[in-house]
Amino acid sequence: MAQARASEIQPVRADLVDDYDPSRFVESLQQVIRCATVVNDDGTYDETTFDEMAKVLVQRFPLVHQHLERETFNRHGVLLTWRGTKDDLDPIVLMAHQDVVPVEAGTESDWTVPPFSGAVADGRIYGRGALDCKGSLIAILEAVEYMLERDVQIERTVLVVLGHDEEVGGHKGAKVIARELEERGVRPWFVVDEGGSVVVGIITAVDSPVALVGIAEKGYMDVTLTAEGEGGHSSIPPRDTPLVQIADAVAKLDRSPMKPRIGTMAPMLRALSGSMSGVAGRLAGRPEMAAPILTRVFARDNLMNALQRTTMVPTVMSGGEKINVIPQLASAHVNVRIIPGDTIASVTSHIRSVVGPDVHIEVDQDVSWEPSALSSTESDGWRVVTGVIGSIFPNAIISPWVVVGAADARYFEEFSAGVYRFAPFEVDSEAIAGVHATNEFVNVKDAQRAVSFFVRLISAAATTAD
Ligand SMILES: [Zn+2]
Fold first, then answer.
1. How many domains are contained in the chain?
2. Which helix (H) or strand (E) holds 120?
3. What is the Å distance from ligand 1's center to 237 Cα?
């Protein structure tokens, strides 16, 4: 199908959403936070919470449900189709997931307000899922409702994909929807999902806000290391017991990281080079040349280190039950995030060479995946998305990055011209600390901008200027 030429991309109208009432966003978000759409680590969830959320959405967004086609997949995965008048134009896809992670037992009372109350305090809408990812979900639907209220006609079809199990891999929701769309021959012009936002005070040596737009995702691996030995009574211990071997193996892995891949970071460094202070700032504009120094500087910063290489960290260790008995078996789970350029195979052989032949390595293939391909920063889709970001967040430097976590968007990579990860919220270290933890929130002051972002994005991509 036809791609728009650059000349066909519509300019962004700055005055578009002045008359949007942001309290509508706040109320909608509060109501969906109250639906505790929790998916547990084992993939189970309470179906009625998703039914409840579906009801709230019908109530809050009557025109969306009147004008858009609504299909469900595995009962709770939702695909909404807002059909444009020109079906030779490839559609755009806007995504956000409905599910949330549990609140860790025993931490409920640490919250400023109860986690599923959706209460507003200190200018913030608190609640599990506020930022990840119900804020985006509500902003998308508020935007579409707003446009339908004003009778906006679109030429390019807009698809809204609302998965319901992103937090456990998205296998029943977004993955199934993506596969179905691919089979129908849909080839999205671009996809926008979570996986980036406007960060303030997060990137070392950069003072200005930075709009991080994900152009790829790191891969993921769960690895189990096990060591076996004789065991026995601790009064006459042998050397090098299974516990010692495992402790030694994880310590070696910590000291022998995989090699940095500054090339993957290069687009980000070029975007930030003018704004970075210190050594990094002077060298960031020429990342390949300055690689030896930059990689050493970045290795001292946890975020920058995670952006420049595959990381691996032990998360669970076990072995032994009694203080005077040497266990015959010890193990460690190691969680790996793979940077584009490395692969599950290359990581496995690195681990093998580091831990040696006596420690058994097992990769859980069911939950592991390769890093994604890099979406283009030269495409029309990139220009549209970043043009709109720039109009909403004029003070932010726009930078591509490789998302260190995972999102449903990866299921669209193989058949879309560009997959970009960005949620239109400003976040600082406190906001980021709340995600998957205590006191997750979205700022009330972001409501207007978040909805404006999607109105302008849809306008720029799918409508024709007057
Ligand atoms: Zn999420």
1. 2
2. strand 120-121
3. 48
Same domain, yes or no: 163 and 283: no
Of 321, 342, 367, which one is at a domain's C-terminal end? 367
Task: List the Cα angle 103/108/109 in 5-degree steps.
Answer: 165
pLDDT tens-digit series, residues 431-442: 999 999 999 999
Instruction: Tell me how far apart the alpha carbons of residues 158 and 68 are, in angstroms, rounded to a whole number.
Output: 9
Tokens representing residue 385 in the block: 């998305």
What CA–CA distance (Å, rounded) separates 333 from 317? 6
Confidence of residue 15 (pLDDT cuts 50, 70, 90): low
Residue 1 lies inside a defined structural domain of this protein: no
- CATH code, domain carrying 110: 3.40.630.10
Measured CA angle at 195 (ends 131, 315), to 5 deg: 85
Confirm if 335 and 315 have CB atoms less than 8 A apart.
yes
Q: How far apart are CA 305 and CA 270, in angstroms?
A: 17
Q: Ligand 1: distance of its center to the CA of 60 in Å? A: 22
Give the whole-angstrom CA distance, residue 394 versus residue 35: 35
For residue 236, give the 3-state DSSP assignment: coil
407 CA → ligand 1 middle, Å: 6
Task: Say yes or no: 46 and 82 in one domain.
Answer: yes
Catalytic site residue 42? no
Structure tokens at 267: 């687009």
Q: What is the pLDDT of residues 395-443, one digit of tens each?
A: 999 999 999 988 999 999 999 989 999 999 999 999 999 999 999 999 9
